[in-house]
Amino acid sequence: MAFQVLLNFFIAFLWMFLSMNFTLSTFLIGFILGIIMILMMNRFIPGRFYMGRVWALVKLFFLFLKELFLANFQVLSLIIRPKMPIKPAIFALPTVLEKEWEITLLSNLITLTPGTLVVAISEDSKTLFIHALDYGDAEEAIDSIRNSFERAILEVSRT
Amino acid sequence: MEILKNSLIILTTSIGLVFIVVTAVGLIRLPDVYSRTHAASKSATLGVMFILLGVFLHFWLIKDEVNTRLLLGIAFLFMTGPVGGHVIGRAAYLSGVPMWKHSVKDDLGPYLKEQKKAHRQSID
């Protein structure tokens, strides 16, 4: 990926030198032309087309924002009830992710999602221990959210 | 146009304020350290992010000055808020703070016990 980004910058500078016009707009035109060239030459360049990965990253960011909002409205609705109907629990969640930055990202995402907080990560980093605010009803929904997060992170890190 | 700008600023700042109040009330009302960390790590992050966004919009739309430091502040909060929550929860558990008495499940305790046993066997 780093090689493709570097190549794209190189093409953009080449375009600036060709057009003898050193402004931001010329750079951007060159950058867009570079993206098109890299897309056309994708079969000869090692690795996946990097804009796909950038797009996956943007999608992950918006997922993050959405979950942050839902989490806050859940906390809001919990604390204004007169009787607090919560069933806290710590449960183990096995993960398929391997690289350390992926696990960090997943635990950050889980901490910002409604009603869950990562308390510890096991020694071999295969299991996350998660404190859930309301364990009873939400376990299956939580599992499906995990799957969507894990898939989104795998989408970014896939080569 | 001026009214629109001002109402946008007031809206973001007051949303931030509401979430800060939620944090404070949650810290008082929730039963144990772990549930309090839920309130502190989520609502406080979003609340301060919204207030900073309101300040940024004020300087941008009214004073006509783009303050990039505020944007950096929002990004840093976004990254460090959940990490802080995690570290507090982990430190509390490892130093033996008990969970609330109505908690229904605890997978971490048996795991830590097993780890300790394995560690002791490796020393012997």
Strand content of chain B: under 5%
How many DSSP helices of chain A? 5
* Number of beta-strand segments of chain A: 3
Derived from helix and strand composition plus strand pairing, the structural class of chain B reads mainly alpha
Coarse morphology of chain B: elongated
Most extensive chain-chain interface:
A-B, 34 and 41 residues
Major beta sheet summary of chain A: 3 strands, antiparallel
Number of structural domains of chain B: 1
Order of helices and strands of chain B: HHHEH
Overall mean confidence score, pLDDT of chain A: 83
- Overall shape of chain A: it is elongated
Q: How many strands of chain B?
A: 1
Rg of chain B: 21 Å
Q: What report would you give on this structure?
A:
The complex is a heterodimer of chains A (159) and B (124). Chain A has 159 residues and is mostly helical. Chain A folds into two domains: 1-41, no CATH class; 53-158, no CATH class. Chain A has helices at 2-19, 24-40, 50-79, 100-112, 135-157; strands spanning 89-94, 116-121, 127-132. Chain A has a three-stranded antiparallel beta sheet, covered by helices on one side. Chain A is elongated and about 70 Å long. The model of chain A has no long low-confidence stretch (mean pLDDT 83). Chain B has 124 residues and is mainly α. Chain B has one domain. Chain B has four helices and one strand; from the N terminus they run αααβα. The longest helix of chain B has 30 residues, at 33-62. The chains are: A mainly alpha (159), B mainly alpha (124). Chains A and B meet through helix 3, strand 1, helix 4, strand 2 and strand 3 of A and helix 1, helix 2, helix 3, strand 1 and helix 4 of B.
